[in-house]
Amino acid sequence: MTQAVEPAEYDVVVIGAGPVGENVADRARAAGLSAAIVESELIGGECSYWACMPSKALLRPVVARADARRVPGLAGAVQGPLDTAAVLAHRDTYASHWKDDGQAAWLEGVGVDIHRGHGRLTGPKAVTVTAPDGTERRLTARHAVAVCTGSRAVVPDLPGIDGARPWTSREATSAKEVPRRLVVVGGGVVGVEMATVWGALGAEITMLVRGKGLLPRMEPFAGELVAEALTDAEADIRTGVSVTSVQRSAPDGPVTVALDNGEQIEADEILFATGRAPRTDDLGLETVGLEPGSWFTVDDSCQVEGVPWLYAVGDVNHRALLTHQGKYQARIAGAAIAARAQGVPNLETGRWGAHAATADHAAVPQVVFTDPEAASVGLTLAEAEQAGHRVRAVDYDLASVAGSGLYADGYRGRARMIVDLDREILLGVTFVGPGIGELLHSATVAVAGEVPLDRLWHAVPAYPTISEIWLRLLETYRDGGS
Ligand SMILES: Cc1cc2nc3c(=O)[nH]c(=O)nc-3n(C[C@H](O)[C@H](O)[C@H](O)COP(=O)(O)OP(=O)(O)OC[C@H]3O[C@@H](n4cnc5c(N)ncnc54)[C@H](O)[C@@H]3O)c2cc1C
Ligand SMILES: NC(=O)c1ccc[n+]([C@@H]2O[C@H](COP(=O)([O-])OP(=O)(O)OC[C@H]3O[C@@H](n4cnc5c(N)ncnc54)[C@H](O)[C@@H]3O)[C@@H](O)[C@H]2O)c1
């Protein structure tokens, strides 16, 4: 029989303690509101244990070695294999050994009450938490409930999938051994980053991509340059193919992957990097008139359409599936919840206002930590044209910048900026090349700040850094080039 524990009331109840839920709770506390957070797994969420942190800890040695191999005088010292045990140990450290004491202590330190268990909405402003031991506790929110339950990997429902023990991003970021042969299905961000890691650690990589190329959400040259480098690293990239079935006959045996072109591939592991689904299927959405299993629809303050006391923040609203963007939304939603709780009459919900996550539409930055790195902010050329802007794309070969040549021998890379011809501001910027990840924020400032191009001329990049790409792009635009 289910035991009930004393109910509790808070100003704000947050479901899901990933990076986003933690920040909503923190912002509520900072505004003087009481806050509780409900977590069914680990405080810190996907990002800390099976996504950003472990994947970037795995990628860092891979990319650093690749960079070092392009520096004369150093290359000879780094020709050997990676120390797999040390790389995996570094990853384990960055995943905090899958323990959440540190993050739990931080939340408690800012005065947020943690309730361990599965949270479900049970009516307006009501959340029931089922603890691991089966006891139930009802939490009531005076002002707002924020759903920050994130997303999970989607594995297509293929014949044989259940017995095939496929990897998702969780296994790909936490595996303890390097498979001899790894098939990666999907050419998005998870696919290319994980192919880069496990290939560098010694796995034979086959990528199966149903579209035309890799990284389809970025400018086409991003996927092309990353594919070129993966192919140089001996990955076998097959485009325009779909998996029709997978079969693992023995638990320790190989997996056989059948393709729609009639071919079969044998591998030791298969990773499905085929996108995400919202964690909303078992959340009690039906009790408040919403559809279980769907992404939330929210306004720019992250308030759920038609349910004013409910907020959905981070991956779960499908605006931008990135930690930094979810945390930005958390800061905005936290401020909006506090302002509404305090009875502030008019919130700043206009474009770029304090209570509007405007950057979600105009300036979402992303770095793909492959070799070469691919980074973008704002719109691609295709997106800008589709949105009806009058634009010019300005391209430049990153290898022609003095700083790039110094950074790496045989530097390969490219940059593009999308100029709004009516306003003479930037709508989007993409860089692809070694060492460009840290350059992205300059582009984010230019795009989010809507900095006029004639003012950008006065932002002088230091010589000889890769940042001189800015000068070259501006000169190319001034001289009428594209
Ligand atoms: C392999 C990989 C690498 C990535 N790398 C990057 C990167 O480099 N940079 C970047 O910006 N983004 C990256 N991302 C994306 C990033 O991980 C997500 O955008 C981010 O984790 C979203 O945060 P969130 O708080 O919305 O959700 P999550 O991090 O998914 O957290 C949700 C939390 O809610 C809990 N929860 C769910 N349902 C319930 C419930 N009913 N009751 C109680 N608790 C519940 C979960 O257990 C979880 O702890 C990566 C993703 C993947 C898969
Ligand atoms: N460095 C980073 O910022 C980083 C790293 C990893 C993940 N992420 C985030 O995590 C999210 C999830 O990444 P992802 O790579 O899983 O998703 P994604 O949506 O980026 O890519 C999934 C790819 O799989 C393909 N696909 C879907 N179903 C398929 C099927 N049945 N067969 C073959 N291909 C199929 C899609 O066409 C798409 O190209 C992304 O939105 C990304 O923003 C970010």
TrEMBL record:
<keyword id="KW-0285">Flavoprotein</keyword>
<protein>
    <submittedName>
        <fullName>NAD(P)/FAD-dependent oxidoreductase</fullName>
        <ecNumber>1.-.-.-</ecNumber>
    </submittedName>
</protein>
<keyword id="KW-0560">Oxidoreductase</keyword>
<dbReference type="InterPro" id="IPR001100">
    <property type="entry name" value="Pyr_nuc-diS_OxRdtase"/>
</dbReference>
<keyword id="KW-0274">FAD</keyword>
<dbReference type="InterPro" id="IPR004099">
    <property type="entry name" value="Pyr_nucl-diS_OxRdtase_dimer"/>
</dbReference>
<dbReference type="Pfam" id="PF02852">
    <property type="entry name" value="Pyr_redox_dim"/>
</dbReference>
<dbReference type="InterPro" id="IPR023753">
    <property type="entry name" value="FAD/NAD-binding_dom"/>
</dbReference>
<feature type="domain" description="FAD/NAD(P)-binding">
    <location>
        <begin position="10"/>
        <end position="327"/>
    </location>
</feature>
<dbReference type="Pfam" id="PF07992">
    <property type="entry name" value="Pyr_redox_2"/>
</dbReference>
<dbReference type="InterPro" id="IPR036188">
    <property type="entry name" value="FAD/NAD-bd_sf"/>
</dbReference>
<dbReference type="InterPro" id="IPR016156">
    <property type="entry name" value="FAD/NAD-linked_Rdtase_dimer_sf"/>
</dbReference>
<comment type="similarity">
    <text>Belongs to the class-I pyridine nucleotide-disulfide oxidoreductase family.</text>
</comment>
<dbReference type="GO" id="GO:0016491">
    <property type="term" value="F:oxidoreductase activity"/>
</dbReference>
<keyword id="KW-0520">NAD</keyword>
<dbReference type="InterPro" id="IPR050151">
    <property type="entry name" value="Class-I_Pyr_Nuc-Dis_Oxidored"/>
</dbReference>
<feature type="domain" description="Pyridine nucleotide-disulphide oxidoreductase dimerisation">
    <location>
        <begin position="364"/>
        <end position="470"/>
    </location>
</feature>
